Every structure is written in structure tokens, then in C-alpha cells.
Amino acid sequence: MTFSVAGFCRKTGQFGTAISSSSICVAARCAFVAPGKGAVLSQNVTNPALGQLGLRLLEDGLSADQVLARLVEEEPHPAWRQLLVLDGQGKGAAHSGEQTLGTHATQVGRDCIVGGNMLASEGVMPAMAAAFDAHEGELAERLLAAMDAGLDIGGEMGPVHSAGLLVADQASWPVVDLRVDWHDEPLTELRMLWDYYRPQRDDYIRRASQPDDAPGYGVPGDDR
Fold this sequence. Notes:
- The protein is 33% helix and 27% strand.
- The chain is of the alpha+beta class.
- The protein has one domain: Aminohydrolase, N-terminal nucleophile (Ntn) domain (Glutamine Phosphoribosylpyrophosphate, subunit 1, domain 1), CATH 3.60.20.
- A six-stranded antiparallel β-sheet has the order 7-8-1-2-9-10.
């Protein structure tokens, strides 16, 4: 039903996730990132509250293993949950309960963690981790490369319909938060959104701290 990646960039300090699923609006329920602290993915039969709790625990300085243990301990239905945690040091930890659907797997890579359920094959996770590690671009590009690699060898067992890309940097909000909530080719659409947004991202960040120096985009009424 889902395959995903969480990653850390040691050059920039960014944390991010990318995710895709046959279910609608997957990124709205499953992906969570805290600037400078880490990322959490709550998937399979999803409980979004676990993502929120995981971020609070990461912000308190707990390691990935400690966060995961707390999440499993406090969740009343851990058998149904698949959880991925990446902490502020780029260390990962994962849980797949016994009710995780279909072929499922997780893998901790270098500064990343990948996981999925109802997968086309067990090879999806190694391909994603290898693609993330091999790509030399910025974090968003590495996350998308991992997703493309997973899809190329089958991805989920059936067609995917939604996807999301979430990246946190120095700002207190995600500097990249792109979603395709329903589409026949959501990862293709997500990359198109990223290609449009990438040249404008820093300008939107500048609007928050330096509004008098931020460019306009030629929309009616904005004559900058």
C-alpha cells in the first residue's frame, strides 16, 4: 500500500521524506519532519498521531531507537503499524507489526531509512537505499531518485495514486511541502511540481525574513 524514504543531508542539515501509495492523500497522513531533529513515517494501517508524537520525542533529543520503542509502547495497536524513524544524527530505526500488509520490508541505509508494504518484491527497498546513497544532488533530488528507483523495479504491488515530498531546513516550517493527492502517475507529477517549485523556493523563504527584498512573480496587483 505504501513505499517511502526518509533522509538526512550532512552538508545542509536538511531532513526530508518522500512517499507514494495506492491510497489517496498519503502524505497528509504519513509523513512528518522536524527541522534539525529528524523525520518519522507512520504507514500501513496508519495512525498519524504516531508521527506527531515521534516528532515531539525527536525534539526532546531521543535517538531513533528510543523514539521507536516509545511509539510501539504507547500505541494500543502496534501490530497494524509500520513505523520509520530517522533521528538528528541520521540514524534509523523501523517497526513492522505482524499485521503489516503483503510483502513488506524496511532497510536502514547511510543517512536514510526506507520502508514499504504490499510491495511488488523484496528488491524495492535495497534499490531505494542504493539510489539515495548514489545520488549527489540536494536532498529533495536524492529522495525523488530513491522513489524512482523503487518504482522502476515494481514499487507497490498495484498502481500508486498519491505521493508527497517534504523537506525541512533552517526555517520552522517545511521549505518543501509538495503533494499529489490523486493521479494516475503521481511520482511523475510530483517531480514536475518539484521542477516548477525549485527555482522559486529560496524566494519564498526570503519573503518570511526579508519581505522588502523578495521578488514578485508578475501576478496581477504585484508590480515588484
